[in-house]
Amino acid sequence: MAYRMPLADRSDSANERWEDFTAPIVRRFEPLARVFISVDAKKPISIHNLKDILPFQGKITLTGKQAVTVNVNLTPEMAAFLRAQSFDQYSADGWTVNVDGNVPLASRQTTGVDEPQIPDARKELTINVKIEGGNNGVLFSLGQPVAADRPSEARVGADPSDVLSLKPADHLSNGDTYKATGSVAVASIEQLRAAGTDYPQWVTDRYLQLPDNLPFRVRRKAREVVRGAGSSPYDQAVAIETYIRSFPIDYDVPGAPPGRDAVDYFLFDAQRGYFDYHASAMAVMLRGLGIPARVATGYAVDPKAAVGDNTYNLTERNAFAWPEVYFPSIGWVEFSPTPSQPTIYRPGSNQPVPVPTSQASSGRGTEDPIDLGLGSAPATPPELVAKSGGSSKTWPLLIALASVAGVVLAAGAAGKLAWEFGLGGLTPPARLWEKAQRLARLAKAWPRPEETPREFAARLDATVPGTSAVRDLASAYERARYGRTSALSEDEASELDAAWASVRRGLLRRLFRLPPSRRP
Question: DSSP letter at 7?
């Protein structure tokens, strides 16, 4: 009976997520990414530049590249975070967004974000935004997105009130401006402590998710940290926040080794990192305690970036991520576990109102813009200058070649990241089966939701020449998933790799419309 279970039980849902979070990359880099998937590019990808994917990138370099100009009247109890979007699905490699619907909105039409049931727990605040640096795919807000003064589209989760982000309906260009209204949490400590744990079903269904292979010691560490902190989710969240703030900032932190969970690696091995790691660790630890949490990305509004009354010129160095924690009758509340930013002032606190610190002085680099390798051309190596003899005729060619190389390497990095995302922690049979399905989708040989692995393999074998070994991949996947053990002998692993290589050749030939191989 187990072998008749359809692919949709796990693999199809994974593939749906794959389509969602790779769409931005496929649209921009599909021709080159297909060819250079295996390229190990030296040039890193810009932080938070993969839209619906939030990967753990390891070492990053943040530049002074202009990002966005915002006019906002902040008060002490407001989290000074310019919000782009939130992420709900965690895996060992990072976060993705599960979008259940897209709701068209007219200018100034409000989203489904709930009003708080507790008076004065939230405020609506309107900001003025000027687009810079290509940030034209999202409408920023302070707090949860409520409305904008132009047609837009609300990307929602399982509930209409679960607004993940707000996108402009029309194309926006650098220099365009808009107004956006957000719902900002200003609840007091007493209100947060009294909020309780009566969470809506859609909140617990989505925002307590953790992967099955998350190391148990992450949950154990969370319980250790909150021991003695009190029983309220707020007090436990503060305890976790305080603990994670003890991990120093390091933008040169190495990425987690293959197969390792990044939060586990951050907490127990690296013990240093930057905002993506700090925010993720807090969200994951809270989920392990049964407290709904997620990660949001955007920019930290830095007082040192002020260029006028309540106007801030933010750059890539102000990029930031933070956790949002759900409190019944109040909604999503921001926390600040990254030590480069102050904790958020809550009414009722005995602490003085914090003064935000500049991230510009936190050790970030000042290298040239990254922008996926599509910005300024890399510097010409000295040996090329010497060989050119200073001839002006060779410079255009050298610059052109360097630019093409930058594009190719960036495309390879993006393609490799998208291709491997979500495969960490899978068994070898499951990993190869997932790769086969992904490549089949690119080759327009989609698996059907109602098909079992064997049924899909049989249909692929019958319709795509050179893919007969896909039956071996399907059988190995079924044994690993539904059998008592997933361990492979060396001979079995070699046979499985050979089967995948054969299937890959057949699918790539279909993808590039090449004639079938004449190999026996």
Answer: G
∠ CA 498-503-507, nearest 5°, is 150
Residue 52 and residue 248 in contact, taking contact as beta carbons nearer than 8 Å? no
d(CA 48, CA 277): 13
Helices (H) and strands (E) in the chain — how many of each? 13, 17
> In angstroms, rounded to a whole number, what is the distance separating the alpha carbons of residues 142 and 179?
11
Partners of 298 in the beta sheet?
83, 320
Q: Name the 3-class secondary structure at 135.
A: coil
CB 156 within 8 A of CB 163: yes
Tokens of 175: 């220099």
Residues 6+ apart with CB under 8 A from 24: 50, 51, 52
Closest CA to 192 of 340, 55, 345: 345
Query: Which amino acid is located at 261 in the chain?
Result: D
Residues 6+ apart with CB under 8 A from 343: 241, 245, 335, 336, 354
* Class of the CATH domain delimited by 53-355: alpha beta
Element (H, E) at 510: helix 490-511
Distance CA 449, CA 472 (A): 20
In a 10 Å sphere around its CB, with 0-12 CB exposed, 13-18 middle and 19+ buried, how is residue 420 labelled?
middle
How many CB atoms sit inside 10 A of residue 311's CB?
A: 14
- Residue 353 has a CB neighbour count (10 Å cut-off) of 10
Rounded Cα distance, 463 and 509, in Å: 13
Query: What residues pair up with 311 in beta bridges, in sequence order?
Result: 71, 308
DSSP annotation of 371 reads G
Pair 413, 44: CB distance under 8 Å: yes
> How big is the CA angle at 421 (ends 418 and 422), to the nearest 5 degrees?
150
Q: Which of 413, 407, 416 is nearest to 435 (CA)?
A: 416
357: amino acid identity, one letter: T
Q: What is the pLDDT along the chain (520 residues), one digit of tens a residue?
A: 333 334 434 444 555 455 555 554 444 443 333 333 333 344 555 688 767 889 999 999 999 999 999 999 988 888 899 999 999 999 999 999 999 999 999 999 999 887 778 878 999 999 999 998 777 889 999 999 999 999 999 999 989 999 999 999 998 889 999 999 999 999 999 999 999 999 999 999 999 999 999 999 999 999 999 998 989 999 999 999 999 999 999 999 999 998 899 999 999 999 999 999 999 999 999 999 999 999 999 999 988 889 988 999 999 999 999 999 999 999 999 999 999 999 999 988 645 444 444 333 333 333 333 232 323 333 333 333 333 344 444 555 555 565 556 555 555 555 656 666 666 667 788 888 888 888 888 888 878 766 788 888 888 888 888 888 888 888 888 777 766 555 677 778 888 888 888 888 888 888 877 666 554 4
